[in-house]
Automatic annotation (TrEMBL), chain A:
Annotated CDD domains: ABC_FeS_Assembly
Domain ABC transporter: 2-246
Keyword Cytoplasm on entry: no
Keyword Nucleotide-binding assigned: yes
Top-rank lineage group of the source organism: Bacteria
Residues passing through the membrane, by range: none
InterPro entries: AAA+_ATPase, ABC_transporter-like_ATP-bd, ABC_transporter-like_CS, FeS-cluster_ATPase_SufC, P-loop_NTPase
Keywords: ATP-binding, Nucleotide-binding
Protein name, UniProt field: Fe-S cluster assembly ATPase SufC
Pfam families: ABC_tran
Family to which the UniProt record says this protein belongs: Belongs to the ABC transporter superfamily. Ycf16 family.
From TrEMBL, chain B:
Annotated PANTHER family: FES CLUSTER ASSEMBLY PROTEIN SUF, UPF0051 PROTEIN ABCI8, CHLOROPLASTIC-RELATED
Matches recorded under InterPro entries: Fe-S_cluster_assembly_SufBD, SUF_FeS_clus_asmbl_SufB, SUF_FeS_clus_asmbl_SufBD_core, SUF_FeS_clus_asmbl_SufBD_sf, SufBD_N
Annotated source species: Falsiroseomonas frigidaquae
Descriptive protein name: Fe-S cluster assembly protein SufB
Pfam families found in the cross-reference section: SUFBD_core, SufBD_N
Domain SUF system FeS cluster assembly SufBD core residues, every copy: 226-468
SUF system FeS cluster assembly SufBD N-terminal domain sequence ranges: 154-218
Membrane spanning stretches: none
Protein origin, superkingdom: Bacteria
Membership in a protein family: Belongs to the iron-sulfur cluster assembly SufBD family.
C-alpha cells in the first residue's frame, strides 16, 4: 500500500506540491488527471526520489518503508518503477546491457540469482515480441534515436522485466497510436494482482478504457481536488478541468 | 629471505578498495648504485652482457641527454625530478632461464594481478590436435612479464617459434637476433628524439621484442605485463615490434605498481615497424598507481610510442585505456610513409582526484592516399586535468590523404578540466582533414534514470562512462575489453555524490 500524507514539495525553491494526500491500497490502480503544470510529473519524481525535488513537509510510506528516506535505487529495488514522461537517452549504453544490469540489481535485492546474458536475451525477446518491438532495439543504445512511441514501449519493456510492486506511469500514453496504446495497457494489465498497484498519470479517458482504474483523482495546483470512480474520467472528458478547479477554489 | 611477505600496510591498502594492485612483493633484488652517470650506463650494459655497439649506442644517447632540457610544453605540473635520486637498475637476484624456473613468488605476484604466466595445460593437447589454440573457450595469451628492470618470464615462446615468431625480452633478442635489433632499434624513435626518449635509450633495461615473419598471422595475442615493484626505481622499458611483409599481430601491454607516497618514473620507448601489407594492433591498458586522493605518490608515465608504417598498405592501430599514473605524458604516433598506409588512434584517458593526463597522437601523412582516424575520449573527475594534444601533419606529396579526428570530453563534477589542443598542418591540396570535438557532462537526468532502475550511483556513472567510451573499448581485444570496463569504473570510484 502506498500512503502519501500532506505532501509538500519544492523545485528550485518553487512550491509545487501543496499538501497532497493519496492512498493506493495493494492491488489497486489509480489514475491521476490534471491540467498541465499542476504537479503530476513532480509527484512521480518525488515518489521515485529525484534529486532537486525537495520534500518540505509530509510523508510517504510504501508498505512499511519510509520511501522518502530511501535513495532512488533503493526504491527501485524495493519495487517502485517510474515510466518516464520523457525517457532519457544513454549514448553508447546498449539497451540489453542496461536492462540486464537493472534486472540483476532488482534480483540481487530479492535474493535471487543473477541472470546470465543468454537467459536474459530469451526473456527479453519474449517480452519484446508481445510489445511488438524489433529485436535490434536490444542492441541499440538506450533510447538513442528511438521514436517517441519506441521510447514509451521501451519503458514498458523495462517494467515488464522488472515486475515492480508499484508502477508510476507518467503520460505513457501521450503520443501513442491506438495499437501502441493497447500494448501499453496489456503490459500494465498483465501485472495486475494483489501485490501490484499503479498510479497512472494521463490526460485521456481513452487509456482508462483499457486500464480500468479503481479510483480517479484530479490534481490541481499541487493537491488532489477531487476523487471518484472511473466515471470521473468520463466527466472530465466532457467538461474539462475548469469546472473542478473553480469549485475547488 | 626469498619468501613473499606482503607488508601489512599493503594488504590493508588492497582491502581499502580503490587501487587494488598496490601490494608489494618482497624478493631479493640486485640494484645498481643510486644515481645516473656513464658508469651506470656501463653497469647496465655489462649486466646484460651487451655487445660493444649497443654500449656505444647507449653512451651516445646518454651524452646527448645531458645536453637536453626537461620538456615543459605539456599541460602538466610537477616538482622537478631529481634524476640522481633513483635506481636505474633493479632486478630479482635469481634470473630465471625458463618458465619452470621462475621464482614461485613472482608467479604468485602475477597470479594475484590476474596475469596467467603458466601456459595453459589445454595448449599441449591443442598443439597436437591442430593450429587453433582458441579451443576450450579461452584464447591463450602469450605473456612477457617485466618486473622492475628485467623480463622474468615469457610464455608460449616455443609454440610461437614454430611459426618463426620471435617473442622475447629485448635483452634476450640482443643476444639471439642481434642483426634485427641493430637494424631497427632507434630507427623509429631516434636516440635524441626527446628528453625522455634519450634517457630511455641510455638506461633502458627490458621490454619486449617481437618479430613476425613474412606472411604470418600471429596465432595468439601477445602481451607484456609491466610491474614496478622496487622502491625509488625508475622503469625504462624498450619495446620493439617488427611486422614483416603481409604479417599480422595484436599486442597488449598492461601495467601496475605498488602504492607508495613517492613518485616513480616510468619512461618507456615503443617502436613499431610495419612493412608492406603488415598490420599491427597495439593495445594498452595503463593502470599505474595514480597516487592518493590528495595527489601524493603515483607514477610519472612519460612515454614515447611511435610506429613507422613503412610498407605499402601497412596499418598500425593504437588503442589505449589510460586510467592510472599521477601524470601521463604520451602521444602514440604513426609515420604513414608507405602509400595507402593506415594509422589509427583510439584513446580513453581518465583523470580523477589529482591526476593529470596530457595525451594524444601525431599522424604524419607522407605517402599517397594515407588515411588516419583519431578517436579520443577524455574523462575528468575530481580535480583531474585532461588534455588531448594532437598533430595531423600532411606533407605536400601525400595526395589524397585523409584524416578524421573526433575528441570528446566528459566532465564529472565542477573541479576538473578538459582541454583540446589539435594542431593541423596540411600542405597538400588534395588532402582532407576533418575534426570534431565535444565537451559534455554526465547529465543529472541520465544518472537519475539509471538509479531509478536500481543501479547504484557508481554503477550508473560506470555505465554512462563506458557508453561514452564505447567506440574505443570495442577496439580492444575481447579478453581485455571486459577488464578495461571494470577498470574505468574503479578509477572513478568516489568521483560523484
Ligand atoms: N526545475 C524546475 N524549476 C522550476 N519550476 C519547475 C521545474 N520543474 C517543474 N517546474 C514547474 O512545476 C510545475 C509542475 O510541473 P510538472 O510536475 O511537470 O507538471 P505536470 O506534469 O502536471 O504538467 C510547473 O509549473 C513547472 O513549470
Ligand atoms: Mg508532466
Amino acid at each position: 500500500m502506498l500512503k502519501i500524507e500532506n505532501l509538500h514539495a519544492t523545485v528550485d525553491g518553487k512550491q509545487i506540491l501543496n499538501g497532497l494526500n493519496l492512498t493506493i491500497p495493494s492491488g489497486e490502480i489509480h489514475a491521476i488527471m490534471g491540467p498541465n503544470g499542476s504537479g503530476k510529473s513532480t509527484l512521480s519524481y518525488v515518489l521515485a526520489g529525484r534529486e532537486g525535488y525537495e520534500v518540505t513537509e509530509g510523508s510517504v510510506t510504501f508498505g512499511d518503508l519510509d520511501l522518502l528516506a530511501m535513495e532512488p535505487e533503493e526504491r527501485a529495488v524495493a519495487g517502485v518503477f517510474l515510466a518516464f514522461q520523457a525517457p532519457v537517452e544513454l549514448p553508447g549504453v546498449g539497451n540489453a546491457n542496461f536492462l540486464r544490469t537493472a534486472l540483476n540489481a532488482v534480483r540481487r535485492a530479492k535474493g535471487e540469482a543473477e541472470i546470465d546474458a543468454i537467459q536474459f536475451l530469451k526473456l527479453a525477446r519474449a517480452r519484446m515480441k508481445v510489445l511488438n518491438m524489433p529485436d535490434d532495439m536490444l542492441k541499440r543504445p538506450v533510447n538513442v534515436g528511438f521514436s517517441g512511441g519506441e521510447k514509451k514501449r521501451n519503458e514498458m519493456l523495462q517494467m515488464a522485466l522488472l515486475t515492480p510492486k508499484l508502477a508510476l506511469l507518467d503520460e505513457t500514453d501521450s503520443g501513442l497510436d491506438i495499437d501502441a496504446l493497447k500494448l501499453v495497457s496489456d503490459t500494465v494489465n498483465a501485472l495486475r494482482g494483489p501485490d501490484f498497484s499503479a498510479l497512472v498519470i494521463t490526460h485521456y479517458q481513452r487509456l482508462l478504457n483499457h486500464i480500468v482504474p479503481d479510483r480517479v483523482h484530479v490534481l490541481s495546483a499541487g493537491r488532489i481536488v477531487k476523487s471518484g470512480g472511473p466515471e470521473l474520467a468520463q466527466e472530465l472528458e466532457v467538461s474539462g478541468y475548469g469546472a473542478i478547479q473553480a469549485s475547488a477554489a | 629471505m626469498a619468501a613473499v611477505t606482503e607488508t601489512i600496510e599493503a594488504v590493508q591498502a588492497v582491502n581499502d578498495g580503490g587501487y587494488k594492485w598496490g601490494f608489494e612483493t618482497d624478493i631479493e633484488m640486485d640494484f645498481a648504485p643510486k644515481g645516473l652517470n656513464e658508469d651506470i650506463v656501463r653497469f647496465i650494459s655489462a649486466k646484460k652482457k651487451e655487445p660493444a655497439w649497443l654500449l656505444e649506442w647507449r653512451l651516445k644517447a646518454y651524452r646527448h641527454w645531458l645536453t637536453m632540457e626537461v620538456p615543459h610544453w605539456a599541460a602538466v605540473s610537477h616538482p622537478p625530478i631529481d634524476f640522481q635520486d633513483a635506481f636505474y637498475y633493479a632486478a630479482p637476484k635469481q634470473g630465471p632461464k625458463s618458465l619452470d624456473e621462475v621464482d614461485p613468488e613472482l608467479l604468485k605476484t602475477y597470479a594475484k594481478l590476474g596475469i596467467p604466466l603458466k601456459e595453459q595445460a589445454i595448449l599441449a593437447g591443442v598443439e597436437g590436435a591442430g593450429d587453433s589454440p582458441s579451443e576450450g573457450g579461452r584464447m591463450p595469451i602469450a605473456v612477457d612479464a617485466v618486473f622492475d628492470s628485467v623480463s622474468v618470464a615469457t610464455s608460449y615462446k616455443e609454440r610461437l617459434a614454430k611459426d618463426g615468431i620471435v617473442f622475447c625480452a629485448i635483452s634476450e633478442a640482443v643476444q639471439t637476433h642481434p642483426e634485427l635489433v641493430q637494424q631497427y632499434l632507434g630507427s623509429v624513435v631516434p636516440q635524441g628524439d626527446n628528453f625522455y626518449a634519450a634517457l630511455n635509450s641510455a638506461v633502458f633495461t627490458d621490454g619486449s621484442f617481437v618479430y613476425i615473419p613474412k606472411g604470418v598471422k600471429c596465432p595468439m595475442e601477445l602481451s607484456t605485463y609491466f610491474r614496478i615493484n622496487a622502491k625509488s626505481t625508475g622503469q625504462f622499458e624498450r619495446t620493439l615490434i617488427i611486422a614483416d611483409e603481409g604479417s599480422t599481430v595484436s599486442y597488449l601491454e598492461g601495467c601496475t605498481a605498488p602504492m607508495r607516497d613517492e613518485n616513480q618514473l616510468h619512461a618507456a620507448v615503443v617502436e613499431l615497424v610495419a612493412l608492406d601489407d603488415a598490420s599491427i594492433k597495439y593495445s594498452t591498458v595503463q593502470n599505474w598507481y595514480p597516487g592518493d586522493a590528495e595527489g601524493k605518490g603515483g607514477i610519472y608515465n612519460f612515454v614515447t610510442k611511435r610506429a613507422a608504417c613503412r610498407g605499402k598498405r601497412s596499418k598500425v592501430s593504437w588503442t589505449q585505456v589510460e586510467t592510472g599514473s599521477a601524470i601521463t605524458w604520451k602521444y602514440p604516433s604513426c609515420l604513414l610513409i608507405g602509400d595507402d598506409s593506415v594509422g589509427e588512434f583510439y584513446s580513453v584517458a581518465i583523470t580523477n582526484n589529482r591526476q593529470q593526463a596530457d595525451t594524444g597522437t601525431k599522424m604524419f601523412h607522407i605517402g599517397q592516399r594515407t588515411r588516419s582516424t583519431i578517436v579520443s575520449k577524455g574523462i575528468s573527475a575530481g580535480h583531474g586535468q585532461n588534455t588531448y594534444r594532437g598533430l595531423v601533419k600532411i606533407s605536400p606529396k601525400a595526395s589524397g590523404a585523409r584524416n578524421f579526428t573526433q575528441c570528446d570530453s566528459l566532465l564529472i563534477g565542477d573541479q576538473c578540466g578538459a582541454h583540446t589542443v589539435p594542431y593541423i598542418e596540411n600542405r597538400c591540396m588534395t588532402a582532407k582533414v576533418e575534426h570534431e570535438a565535444t565537451t559534455s557532462r554526465i547529465a543529472e537526468d541520465q544518472l537519475f534514470y539509471c538509479r531509478s532502475r536500481g543501479l547504484s550511483q557508481e554503477d550508473a556513472v560506470g555505465m554512462i562512462v563506458n557508453g561514452f567510451c564505447r567506440e574505443v573499448l570495442k577496439e580492444l581485444p575481447m579478453e581485455f575489453a571486459v577488464e578495461a570496463q571494470k577498470l574505468l569504473q574503479i578509477s572513478l570510484e568516489g568521483s560523484v555524490g
